[in-house]
From TrEMBL:
PANTHER family: HOMOSERINE O-ACETYLTRANSFERASE
Keywords: Acyltransferase, Amino-acid biosynthesis, Cytoplasm, Methionine biosynthesis, Transferase
GO cellular component: cytoplasm
Physiological role: Transfers a succinyl group from succinyl-CoA to L-homoserine, forming succinyl-L-homoserine.
Reaction equation(s) it catalyzes: L-homoserine + succinyl-CoA = O-succinyl-L-homoserine + CoA
Metabolic or biological pathway, per its Swiss-Prot or TrEMBL entry: Amino-acid biosynthesis; L-methionine biosynthesis via de novo pathway; O-succinyl-L-homoserine from L-homoserine: step 1/1
Record organism: Nitrosospira lacus
Top-rank taxon, per record: Bacteria
Predominant localisation class: cytoplasm
Protein name: Homoserine O-succinyltransferase
GO MF annotation terms: homoserine O-acetyltransferase activity; homoserine O-succinyltransferase activity
Compartments where located: Cytoplasm
């Protein structure tokens, strides 16, 4: 095995689909576009493809950099590449910006061909099941009949689970990382507070802020700040920021004084410059609605009767947003169906964000599992 290397310059591609898409909500999209990236080469047997599904604020840009932005490394650049845990000398890796996204795929900021105006609030609510349907169409477009693996963290892990239920013959392995089979009431509550911050922003204009040349920046900023708190652990925040003061002394006011306040505001401002508010609403609703056991009298074991894939399920000790118990519930349901399951609970101080971090033990586990996938 050679030393780990990085993917160099990459470029996104796009695919347009003109066959109507019938969404779970009952809405229909007559046509739509998906933006995606690929890494590595598809082998002659087309048996080495790996689909990586993104989380709430992710996109298709998994690894490598863009020619016009050498610092624009993909969000899983530490995981994907030659000699890395998902080795692009062995696998053909596909990343796609989900429908409803704001990084090129058709979404609220796209033009509705029926009206010639932005979709805005008229863009339909999409679900994890809808995304899997579009990903299948993309696989068909790429000539991939079956994925060697579908992988993802958080909301991406939910998509990996849904693949094994809706298209059990088209996925051999599912890597479900820092995910859950449904959100807790607390998680739904966090999402609703974040959405309310956006919806009540005076610049939201009922979701039609595009035609007002406005951005609900304050609401989106607050939503991201709230979300970011839940992605981190108390230990991680304490170690990185503690109670450090920016200027070394109390100011007895309401401006930024503590380093953690400065960090959260920076993250909020950065996110508000890069992400679409309507997309944020859609993504959090997709999280809320995901519940494969719902149609099986809340019996998760019954929900997984259709699955045939082999599974790797990973959780992180300090992840309180998607706690290890949520992952263990998935493992129990899979074992009830006598499926092949590998599970690890990884000690990490980074909270929910652990699945994005470069951690030697975590990456070795991923590498070991991926190395054993037969293509």
């Amino acid at each position: 095995m050679q030393d780990s290397g990085s993917i160099d310059i990459v470029a996104p591609r796009s695919a347009r689909f003109n066959t109507p898409l019938y969404l779970k909500s009952g809405a229909v999209l007559e046509d739509y576009e998906l933006v995606y990236e690929t890494y590595g080469d598809l082998n002659a047997a087309k048996s080495n493809a790996v689909l990586v599904c993104h989380a709430l604020s992710g996109n298709h840009h998994l690894a490598g950099c863009y020619a016009d932005s050498p610092k624009s490394a993909g969000w899983w650049n530490n995981m994907i590449g030659p000699g890395k845990s998902i080795d692009t000398r062995k696998f053909f890796v596909v990343g796609v910006n989900n429908l409803g996204g704001c990084h090129g795929s058709t979404g609220p900021a796209s033009i509705n061909p029926k009206t010639g105006k932005y979709y805005g609030p008229d863009f339909p609510v999409v679900t994890v099941e809808d995304w899997v349907q579009t990903q299948v169409r993309l696989a068909d477009h790429l000539g991939i009949d079956q994925f060697a693996a579908v992988a993802g963290g958080s909301l991406g892990g939910m998509q990996a689970l849904q693949w094994t239920l809706d298209f059990p013959e088209r996925v051999r392995h599912a890597l479900v990382i820092a995910a859950a089979a449904k959100l807790t009431a607390q998680n739904i509550a966090f999402n609703d507070v974040a959405r309310q911050a956006i919806i009540t922003d005076p610049d939201f204009h009922g979701g039609d802020y595009y035609s007002h040349s406005a951005i609900p920046r304050r609401g989106l900023r607050l939503a991201r700040m709230l979300g970011h708190i839940t992605y981190l652990s108390d230990d991680a925040m304490a170690a990185k920021f503690g109670r450090e003061l920016r200027n070394g002394a109390l100011a007895f006011g309401f401006d930024v004084e503590f380093e953690i306040e400065s960090y959260l505001r920076y993250q909020g401002d950065k996110f508000a410059d890069q992400f679409d508010a309507n997309t944020y609403l859609l993504m959090t609703k997709a999280l809320d609605y995901f519940d494969p056991a719902y149609l099986h009298n809340n019996d998760l074991s019954a929900a997984f009767r259709a699955a045939k894939a082999k599974f790797l399920v990973l959780s992180f000790t300090t992840d309180w947003r998607f706690s290890p118990e949520r992952s263990r519930a998935i493992v129990r349901a899979l074992l009830d169906n006598e499926l092949n399951v590998s599970y690890a609970e990884i000690t990490s101080s980074h909270g929910h964000d652990s699945f994005l971090m470069e951690d030697r033990h975590y990456h070795r586990l991923m590498r070991a599992y991926m190395d054993n996938i037969v293509i």
